[in-house]
Design a protein that fits this description.
The protein is α/β, with parallel strands linked by helices. It is built from 15 helices and 20 strands. The protein is globular, with a radius of gyration of 23 Å. The protein starts with a helix and ends with a strand.
Length: about 500
Amino acid sequence: MKTINILILLVLFQITMYSQESLKREMRAAWISTVDNIDWPSKPGLSDKEMKSEMTAILDNLRSYNLNTVVFQIRPTADAYYKSSKEPASHWITGKQGLAPGFDPLQLMIDEAGKRGMSVHVWLNPYRVQKDITKDVLVKSHLYFKKPELFVTYGKTRYFNPGLQETRNFVASVVGEIVRNYDIQAIHMDDYFYPYKITGQEFPDEQAFIKEHRQFKDKDDWRRDNVDLIIKQIRDTINANKPEVEFGISPFGVWRNKSKDLDGSNTIAGVTNYDDLYANILKWQKENWIDYVTPQLYWHIGFDRADFEVLAKWWATHKYGANVYIGLGDYKITKKAKEVEWRSANQIVRQLEMIRSIPLLDGSMHFTANVFQKLGDTLRKPIVEKQYKHIALTPEANRVIKIQPAPPINPNVTQKLGQVTLHWMHGKDNKKFVIYKFSKDKLADLSNSENIYYVTTATTIEISPTDFQNYDFAITALSATQSESTLIQFNK
């Protein structure tokens, strides 16, 4: 009985520590969607100056919420928001596919997010090519015109055929190019592998099934294997190029209902990953093919068909070593919401509190960035006063080989005309820097995020003379795997 009581106290202690405002490691991300110009740019055809201004405004706003990660959609429809040798520049940027802006959007995002201490995950849609085939947007140099046999049309949307090895090879090559050329934290994909079903229409992959059936007799099992194959191939591609880069998936929120599988969730969802989207997420987690999973739990607490609390706890107990970041549906918040639960920001506040109360969860991602702009203090005030009060570092992935950075070199201080500037130089494997501010009468506690002053990729930062006089400042470095170096003091 004594042992049981001790275990209960330890669990309660863990929950308390995880729920407190000063949590140091927690994913706090926002998706930046580019398809349909949801987030950036606000419309096609803006000038380079206008697009750059919009991007920095988005990042400044997200930073004001103490978010630490952006998930930037760089390949919404087999096109590119980056310099690609394989696919044309996206028409969502300039209004014409193949016509790139005068700068590299992804590189700008990496640079500007880094200055603000934010990591960048790049979001790719693996198979969607053209969202609406009634619109003539594909440039003639697109792969579709060179190899039309690789593509299928379902409803109004054109896709790569997931049943063909050649298309999987191409998608993996796209991932390899991005990983080699850009300093990113993660490759991210959402729920669009096989598309959501259209009533009365069969996905047109019968010829691929005949051609490359791999001894499968059941088409559903074959489709699931097709998706398994691309996930494994992308994992291998990342490892072959930069094994420190993470791979994350943001699936639909329900893997399977319990009525279909005893290991499923206590839900009655009309769509599930396994049965309808052919995505066997749990297998990918068990096989170490992905580093994190972000289930899209865009339902309110208490929703009868798919309760947020039920699903958050289900995913927490089905993580299999992967990090779990809950996907939040901030976009549903509006005073005119059909469901009364979404008529204020309180639903998201409650969901964040619930995530904090479940120790096996590692944070959250918010859909999408423009909601933070639209809602302003309506959302900022409640979450920054509590859950996001202090800066938090992003979690370390459990499955990448950790890179231990050396501390920054030669931290020093200059004072000129009333300004105080902290300076330092890069040490080995330094990607970002964490500046700490400690009260003079307290120990330098690195575990408490209340002591984090700022995070940045820069090598200088200005601080107020008053802070400099009243506090001690120190610095650590973060590596590409978010591992932290030892602490170095700034000498006064």
